[in-house]
Amino acid sequence: MRFLERERATLAKLLPDLDPALREMPMMELERPGSPGIRLFRDSGGPGLLVPEIHQGRGATALDALRVQRAIGSRSPSLAVATTMHHFSMATLVGLGGLGDGLEWMLIEGVASTNRIIASGFAEGRSGAGILDPSMTATVTEDGIRINGVKRPCSLARSMDVLTASVTIPREDGQGEELAVALVPAESDGLSVSGFWSSAFLAGAESEQVTLTDVLVPPELVLRTATTSGERLDELQTAGLIWFQMLMTGSYLGAASALVERVLLNDRIPEHDRVRLFLETEAAMATAEGVARRVDAGDLGESALAQALFVRYGVQDAIARVVPRSVELLGGLNFMTSDEVGHLAACANGLSLHPPSRSRMTGPFSAYLADRPLAVA
């Protein structure tokens, strides 16, 4: 099977209109602010990728989703990174569907059937915070809850239909507090989007600042968990972090693969150089697929999270080797006559910037290797 053929075949099976549409657009058009990429993703049915078919989604497995993200990343790194945040939010809501009373599935089905884009206001970007640890404050009123807070950067900020946010609110029985997930419509009074991302790299991901000022969320859009942090929800946080690491790994490996593909298609480059790049890139993908297969087997515990992190850092190292070698082999003429090579090289290294950083995980990994529980710094 040819390089990226399996990934693009998976994308064609699940979202048949997306890859042809992306191929027709110049890459740098997809990477600019105001990129049409997110609209193409929406029009292709992408928002329902991880939603079970019984709930009007595409029913993708974790392995499918990983391959889809790599395929998209090879066309537009910005779109892959942005849609990873949507899929991460959807995976969290699907997980909540297993904890709740059925309302969650109605909302999930609504997202899939109408192709709504969900942005993440979860705390995945805060050092030392769990995926669903509250990053915003909430006050309960007769009409629902009022939320205040800021999320930056927030991918999909300008195209989102809904923002997910975790909050702590009083339990309905009056016995302490519980965690809840609020679904905040983008058109809500008090929700505003302002500029934050000033870099030219990944500019098409719409990673801006979202501010909530006294935003009212009605009760039907507040998903209570009946748990507090440290209880059963920890399982959901672990699962969410596994999905986050896995899909981000696939997305950035896609950006690196776009460079490798250019090398493989250039028969003027020596065979041994081409084969070496091919082997290292495919080996990196194989390790990520191992994580996806564990997710599909329902293995979402601490060991799977450790593997997801090990793999993510290992892929970072592989990217750090194959990207500069690809640029070197493509030569100065390619670099000087097109923005694409330099852009892809810069974007592919973005995986190292996502939490948790390897340096902060050194202590927790050392403790884990000594048979202590895995902590995420």
UniProtKB/TrEMBL annotation:
InterPro entries: Acyl-CoA_Oxase/DH_mid-dom_sf (IPR046373), AcylCoA_DH/ox_N_sf (IPR037069), AcylCoA_DH/oxidase_NM_dom_sf (IPR009100). The keyword Oxidoreductase applies. Keywords: FAD, Flavoprotein, Oxidoreductase. GO terms for molecular function: acyl-CoA dehydrogenase activity; flavin adenine dinucleotide binding. The keyword Flavoprotein applies. It comes from the Bacteria. SUPFAM superfamilies: Acyl-CoA dehydrogenase NM domain-like. This is Acyl-CoA/acyl-ACP dehydrogenase. It comes from Streptomyces griseicoloratus.
